[in-house]
From TrEMBL:
The keyword Transcription regulation applies. Pfam families: DUF6597 (PF20240), HTH_18 (PF12833). The keyword Acyltransferase does not apply. It comes from Kocuria flava. It comes from the Bacteria. PANTHER family: HTH-TYPE TRANSCRIPTIONAL ACTIVATOR RHAS-RELATED (PTHR46796). This is HTH araC/xylS-type domain-containing protein.
Length: 262
């Protein structure tokens, strides 16, 4: 997996670019556990271009044969360049009418030199984002920047634990906060906060498998250890201890961890 930060001129719209590429022998496959950011991605693959919405739980993808993808992880301000209803794409995706982009990226990914094909493919996808941004309503983009601040506050750490606290920090009403999250992310603020809290818990458990889970639950604002365990089961499909032991565990925010299968 190759990851690249977004250039300054589109950093308010795109968080990062990511490019997985694989080639597996006949009869072999690789299992990829994926728990993406609670955000949307524009993804170009050999089969087409699609907008993938925010995810609420981990999923497993089985890779076979040869393939690649070129993706842009969108900031909230970039989401409305591609859809005005991100909530409808929660844990799902929709094809995008971007035929010229697809054709150019497919040609770029056929180049022999890996660096050259990645540079060209990423440049084409970023140019597509720039074209959409140039045609967008400036007022809409300005509102999107406020949604960016909302997500930045959520990701800054477990300091703010309630939507009301987020609204106070942004100097908006809770109703405005709910509207921002629905329009630019596709998730309510409460769910964003829960995902961030689980991310912190997963990182801590992975770093220290023997951590006192009761103390961790209290520190991060879970009702108790049972509440923490239920969140792990719901989103990651395992308990905190099981997650810490798993060789293919993946910290929320990563695209995924790959395990070969035969």
């Amino acid at each position: 997996m190759t990851r690249r930060g977004a250039p300054d001129d589109v950093a308010a719209l795109v968080r990062q670019l990511w490019l997985p590429q694989w080639s597996l022998p006949p009869g072999e496959s690789a299992e990829q556990l994926v728990l993406g950011y609670p955000a949307s991605n524009v993804v170009v693959e050999p089969a087409g271009v699609a907008l993938h919405g925010p995810t609420t739980r981990a999923s497993t993808r089985v890779l076979t044969g040869t393939g690649w993808a070129v993706g842009a992880l969108l900031r909230p301000a970039g989401v409305l360049l591609f859809t005005d209803r991100p909530a409808q794409l929660l844990d799902g995706s929709a094809p995008l009418a971007a035929g010229p982009l697809h054709e150019r990226v497919v040609r770029a990914m056929a180049a022999e030199d890996p660096r050259a094909r990645h540079d060209r493919a990423v440049g084409l996808l970023l140019d597509h984002v720039r074209e959409r941004a140039a045609a967008a309503d400036p007022g809409l983009l300005e509102e999107g920047l406020l949604a960016n601040r909302l997500v930045d506050l959520v990701e800054a750490g477990p300091g703010e634990r309630t939507p009301a606290g987020l609204a106070r920090r942004l100097h908006v009403s809770e109703r405005t906060l709910q509207r921002l999250a629905a329009r630019f992310v596709g998730m309510p603020p409460g769910l964003l906060l829960r995902r961030r809290r689980l991310q912190e818990a997963a990182e801590r458990v992975r770093a220290d498998p023997g951590l006192d889970l009761g103390a961790l639950a209290a520190e991060l604002g879970f009702a108790d250890q049972s509440h923490l365990t239920r969140e792990f089961r719901t989103v990651l499909g395992t308990t905190p201890r099981g997650y810490a032991r798993s060789p293919r565990g993946v910290v929320p925010g990563d695209r995924g961890a790959v395990r070969p299968r035969r």
